[in-house]
Amino acid sequence: SFTLSQRALNITPSATLAITGKAKEMKAAGMDVIGLGAGEPDFNTPEYILTAAKQAMDEGKTKYTAVGGVIELKQAIVDKLAVDNGLTYTTDEVIVTTGAKNAIYTLCQTILNPGDEVIVPSPYWVSYTEMVKLADGVPVIIEGKHANQFKVTATAIEAAITPKTKALFINSPSNPTGTVYNREELQAIADVAVKHQIMVISDEIYEKLLFGEAEHVSIASLGQAIKALTIIINGVSKSHAMTGWRIGYAVGDATVIKAMTQLNGHATSNPTSIAQYAALGAYTGDQTAIATMKQAFGERLDTIYPQITAIPGFQVDKPSGAFYLFIDVSEAAANCGYDTVDAFATALLEEAQVAVIPGSGFGTPRYIRISYATSLTLLEEAVRRMKNFVATKQ
Ligand code: PLP
Predict the structure, then answer these.
(1) Last residue of some domain: 284, 309, 332?
(2) pLDDT of 305-329, one tens digit each?
(3) Which residues line ligand 1 (CB under 6 A)?
């Protein structure tokens, strides 16, 4: 048999995939499983975007493109940043990638040397730490406290900075917590980053999914000094229900973007040509479909949030963004006789046929993440099942 590389052996398998894999098996065996694990909108890609893709195919736009994306799409991204975020960039500060995930992966490969530290606020999106490790970097995890809506403070960040610190992840709105940093909090973080000259990797993929009073602020918009240090990560996956098309991007310092483009030239080449034109259509067409999806997410949240909090031993604050609820179920798990939330989540799947993601994969073992990117009918049924499960076990 083959000997695997130390790099491959060091990867922590995705907690998300473990439970969703099991849920799929149960479904295939004919069981009525409700999956609340998915990290993607349940809506179809809007019609006007499909039309743009079909048109691209008919026009023969099916060949290799420039590695970093076609110029029209880069320009559309530049225009989007100006309109939505008040930011001025040029197209040589943009790279289009195979999903936002590839943007972050390639960025880590481009900026990190062995032993370089990257500060990762927890709870974190599962891939950040693994991508840092895959670039021989060291993830330095700092805890965002539940009492502070899972946000890390500028003071905590500063305390984690060492001479080896290269970068800091900020993910607002956040996966898994749905928390949104406000302008003052970001300003304080920006001040620390500028003081210590740390790069900020600002993952803004959930930018369009905000509820109530919450406002999206890109940390890059807080002055020239922080803009120069920030690489913005974004894409159309979550905003335009386009997860399968694989179009994301990174925006920032032209030297970094050029190096990322050179690297991807040997790794992925260009993101799919047709998908690039679909994304171009997504940004240049009528945006009402986005507003409609956002409204649906908001209604679901308003409906199920009080039902979830009514389950004994489930504690969660109402999130301001994304489409997740990150719930402290440690009390419910203990009351039901489980030693760990992981065991509780497994039992929920096996006995109540509800698939949730245990928080251990996000660095927070007391929690589960549920996604409300599914129909209200299924959501309400899932909540009923969880409530009954907890009631019968206690
Ligand atoms: N960043 C965060 C926080 C995410 O949750 C995800 C997807 O789950 C991504 C990035 C990756 O997005 P994409 O599908 O465009 O690669």
Answers:
(1) 284
(2) 999 999 999 999 999 999 999 999 9
(3) 39, 99-101, 125, 171, 175, 203, 205, 235, 237, 243, 248
